[in-house]
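User: I'm curious whether this sequence folds into something compact or stays loose and floppy. Could you predict its structure so I can see for myself?
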Amino acid sequence: MSQEAVNKKMQTCGTYVKNKISKKQQVLYVKMFGDFSLEYQGRSLIAKKKKETQFALALQLIFHSGEEGISREHLEKVLFGERTLDDANHAIHSLIYNIRKKLEQTGLPKGKYIISRRGRFYWDKEIPFEEDAQLFEEYCSRACRAGDWEERIELCWKAALLYKGAFLKDSEQEGWVKEERERYHIMFRKLIEYMAELLRKKKAYIQLEKLGRHVSKAAPYEEGELLVIEALTGMGRTEQTEILYVETVEKYRQVYMEEELCKLKDFRRKIEEQLDHPYDILDNIQENMTEQLEKVQEPYQCNWMVFREIYHMVARMIERSGQQVQLMLCTLTDMEEHPIRFDECAEVLSRYIWESICRSIRAGDVVTRYGKGQYLVLLINTKPEDCQEIQKRIDAQFRKKDTVYEIRYSVKSVRSLNNAKDDQGLS
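Assistant: Here's the prediction. I'll summarize afterward.
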């Protein structure tokens, strides 16, 4: 099969699940990945609720138990905890009665819905259902047994596209839900690794990019961006790769924060290993960079990790140049100069101070968000006495927003590398 034929076939995989369900309108579809839902004939049968209900919990347990059913004891323990036996028996009978009544009102075909037999509860076979988690396991198992590449990758796609988030992601159940969530998470991670390797062997970069973007959405911090970057690099889309690199580093910086910088460094290393440029001559490389530079009208805005590296580079350069560079810290405060707590610092306020800084400094300066309500600026070729004028410009821009908050400033000269050994602030 040609690569073109492979790509065309893979493009149809994304619609497989929906098409399959649409052809089986009489099948109740149970969604466990992400938000719990029941769908029948294209309609959702359960309204989205913020809190779990016994109605939803009971259905989740019964559907997920499949043909084996769930014991009365287990169902009572999950739903009613430490109630006495008589209380629990009465409560379970009442709950099952109410579930049947509510399901009948949804428009499902008439039936018993929940069957009680020999101390176990089952879903009524007269009303067939499909559960995404069970289908996921089935496709994963079949993919492992498949004979050729095309069949394996097709089954893998069917499984991967079913995973739209963690198993019952909003559930607060600590027992069976937590265990199943972790089990499916591990299965999904292994599936993605397996798929990525299959796609690499065929250099199916379009599908590898699609896979990475699906992972980024379904499991946001499972490094799906690495697959996207690998795919973009393989297709020679260098500019897109570099943009995604910056965005991704910033995303993970906010997750890992300062106490986990080693994780962020490791992640950056993984990304950078994927970055690659096609062979070129120096003239073309310089021309490309110059074209990009000519478009720059604003100060350089970057994440903390990049900012720190620029700081170190500047510290090395000023040893010989004698250039003066100032490091300025801008802190958002109230009228009494108390730092604003994060819960008081709305997103719009953070945007105000960011815009005020960017409009008040030069294109050659560098700015980053350091923390909650704090921003760092590298003022290149700037004397200490010039900083007050810059601060006045920032304040003037900030007051245009008619806010009652203020900005407090701290300024220190960037020291040369030889004199910076005792500076722990950016180490």
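Summary: The chain is about 55% helix and 10% strand. Residues 176-201 form the longest helix (26 residues).
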